[in-house]
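Q: How do we represent a protein-ligand complex in a form that can be generated token by token?
A: Start from the inputs.
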Amino acid sequence: MRIEEFPTDIRPRLIPAHAGRMVYRCLGCGAQFSIEELLYVCPECRQVLMIEDLATERLRQTPGSLWRRIFDFRRMLNLPALKGIYRYHEFIGPVVPLEAVVYLGEGHTPLVAANRVLRDQIGVEFYFKNDGQNPSASFKDRGMASALSYINAKILRGDLEELLAVCASTGDTSAAAALYGAYLAPRIKSAVLLPHKKVTPQQLGQPLGSGAAVFEIPGVFDDCMKVVESLSEEYPVALLNSKNAWRILGQESFSYEIAQDLEYDVSRTAVVVPIGNAGNITALMSGFLKFYEAGIIKSLPKILGVQSEHADPVHRYYLEPDAAKRRFVPVTVKPSTAQAAMIGNPVSMPRVIHLVERYNQSAGRQRVFFAAVSEQEIMDWQLTANRNGHIACTHGGESLAGLSAARRRGIVGAEEVAVLDSTAHALKFSMFQEMYFENRFPPEYRICPRPELVNRPAFVRPADLDALPAPGAPLQGEEFQRFVRRTAEEIAARLNLKKRQPTAGPTGPTKGS
Ligand SMILES: *Cc1c(COP(=O)(O)O)cnc(C)c1O
Ligand SMILES: [Zn+2]
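Then emit the structure tokens for the protein with zinc ion bound:
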């Protein structure tokens, strides 16, 4: 729709004008720092940072009802810069000018309702929000769009000539970083560090295809993270991990979209999200809090963070009910099919601790919960979801396993509606499906395939055929007819199909005519 056609009260607000006054805020000592510099930790106390807008009082001068209308009308606006995460520009990155926005089609991923079969198995109505439908096939694109738009703004202002962007990754961060970096070539070059043999072939192919320098490192993600932190401290490189607070801002869009897609009523909503480095759950809490404080939503939804028992430091931390007695202890991870979340020492843990407290306090009751699930549950639920029409990755399976556990424990009631983050596309993790179907999981996963979920291709080659078609050597005439007929017969036999009864034929009388 053209700008002239929007209602007159909306027209002046369609294009964001709020410039914001954004600063880094240290979660340790509370100090604030200018965003002119790229910072990842507090220069004073080394703690992680969040980005804060000091001008939010100005946002609060707009009533929640008007914000809701602005965002709803922006849906109809054909301006690429506002088509992705920056539909919520005032809340995500008001300092980023629209001409600097890098939009590759991220965000606004669909909410897909579970069918009756699946809903009855879990005992509550729910949706998958398919973040695998982002450009690099995971939610990481949301944060990269934000981080790279901010960097692009610096480039356009002439503050930056060129930049080497680095990240450590369990696979999806590097895919997203390399993709968004490639879009800004040649100003941006990318280098990614991956734990050797701990990312899937699809995830390895993504940064290679985008032209990044790819380094495989022995160990697990936590080791890569330390190396990349050392790189970013000693050399002039930009760190694109979620330690970079710009990533968090972009990922807040996930919560804004849920609010908007549910008509801004999240009072009965439970949002379920897998936790790895804990950037995503940080963004989820931060995003809902911002919308709540601006009066856009009237209540805070329940949040359920899920981890595999093989990498569950956050869940363990919250097992202690007394906040004063909680102590964070990193865990040594074991292999997990939720491989992108296989992290024992989450970088965003201080952010989680800070935000869980604020979130529950704002809600006036406990609204953030945690659960740990087994590898068996992750795989069984992922496969079950996909047999019911979804494209959930193993982490989507982890979300569903978490929801099932939360229903059994009464954390989520039958009257609620859950939204599950399927953080990536199923195809990225198809090797785990294959391992399940072929019963090839190494013992440490402790996964025993359930026969009713296993599916294998069947090779069909009728034994009585002498001649078979081959690439470049098609069959002809009678041989070809015989091949087609015998192969069809064999498939029909395996499917228990009965031959059609001869009918009167196309010229015969038709019923009802
Ligand atoms: C990164 C990632 C996660 C974990 O998200 P965090 O923000 O690190 O907690 C979960 N699932 C997928 C598919 C991911 O790529
Ligand atoms: Zn500090």
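The chain has three domains: 95-103+139-249, 111-134+252-453, 460-495. Residues 460-495 form one domain.
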